Here is the input.
Amino acid sequence: MIETVQLSKQYGTIRALQNICLRFEDGKTVGIVGENGAGKTTLFRCIAGLETHEGQVLSDRNPLKNHLGFLPTEPYFFPKITAEEYIRLLTNARGKKIKNIESQNIFDLPLNQYASTFSSGMKKKLALSAILLQGNQYFILDEPFNGVDIQSNLIITEIIRKLQALNKTVILSSHIFSTLSDTCDEIHLLRQGQLVQSVPKHDFDKLEAEMKAFSIGNKIERLELED
Amino acid sequence: MIKHYIYLQYKIANRRLKSYGFHPFVAYPLLFIVFTVFSFLLFYPQIIYLQYFYLLIPFYFSFNLAEPGRNDFLKICFNDKMYKMIRIMENLMIALPFIAFLLYKRCYLLAFLLTVLMIFSALANTRTRFSFVIPTPFAKNPFEFTVGFRNTFYLFVLAYGLTVIAIVVNNFNLVAFALLLTLLVPCGFYLKPENPYYVWQFSLSPAQFLYYKMKTALVYSFRLSLPIILTLSLFYPGNAWIPILCFLLGYIFLILFIVIKYASFPDEPGILEGIAILLCFFIPPLLLIIIPYYFNQSVKQLQTLLP
Here is the structure.
């Protein structure tokens, strides 16, 4: 379980997060949605402990970060480090020894090539592989489907389902609503750093319709596109 | 257009100095004094071979400018002729104080050599995105030595080559220089802070994390210098204590670089840290005070990421 209590974050005069109270139960997959700049990544970084913040982040496993796999939106890779070395670096950091990386390379990545030369989709798959091999209890996946091919999208969806079956907690964000409705038990909507709505699975369609109406409105008409 | 580019670089440099807490009016004279003292000390006649490092220093700085992403950006902004001019000019500006000092010391050949090499390295664009993976003996615990070795492998080839030459011509000092090279180059592996994400990954306390880094540095720097230590012990058994002493000193400097890196993490070490390193370089007993001080600073600095 992970719980945020009155979680707030301020960058200068900008309030990036305002009193966020959320609870993420074991075995549940929770989606976080919102426009660009709504505070999703900041929320994830605060939960992970990569940002200082006001309020509390509670967990039944402490310190939380040692049991948490965090997939950033744009994973960063050192130049001149191979994919295999990257996986070894991250698994070593958690004291986990991997004997045969090749057999667990489910995305068929070229493990002996420099990771920095990979495409954005391959980078994402590599970073995801590494945090999965760390053997974490909790996962934060910031836009895991971004830039990834269709086949890998299907694999990632199945991975999330498997994690759920293993009683692990998954928190994820995505700009593709269908990927969230396929995997999540609950979705929270963030707007300008505030939690505006929490929606259970049976109301996902309603949420999508509301989001469409709010985001699109009459914006397309304002373009005054002509024949 | 080039004039505007130079002005922009000057402004960036000033902003960086200010971020380190130094007003440019103070920083530039200070840098000039440090550079002059450092140069005179390296050319002090009794410190044999140490002046060869002098040629490596501008190369190290120019290496940072040869970053592929940066060069790609310049190529997009300027045409080919302009791009080459800018790169040559940048490299020569870095080398200029060194060339001036070499001329002052009447080392005309070295000054000429440095000029030609800097122009050549600007045009050669050394850090291309080649995909050939250089094998390293550090696969078990990446990353500083893995990345660092791949960036500077030619210096180790040079050191081992010098060792062979030194044995053939029976020159003990040259082998000692090669050993120093293998010990000091890894210090540079710890100059740039990594993305905080990589520190955050570790399920260790700040002190345990620093000890882990020191242990890895000890094992891997020993691996790099072992061929030269063995050669020295084999061919100069009477002086076997010298390589051991050199290794210990080199390792202590590695520890210094590690603690200094994390003392200002996630920012880059500033001018004060640079001065601390220089002081330790010339007055080694200071290491006994400076290492524990920066160790404590590092522990404090890492507390947020490694609670």
Summary: The first strand of chain A starts at residue 2 and ends at 11.
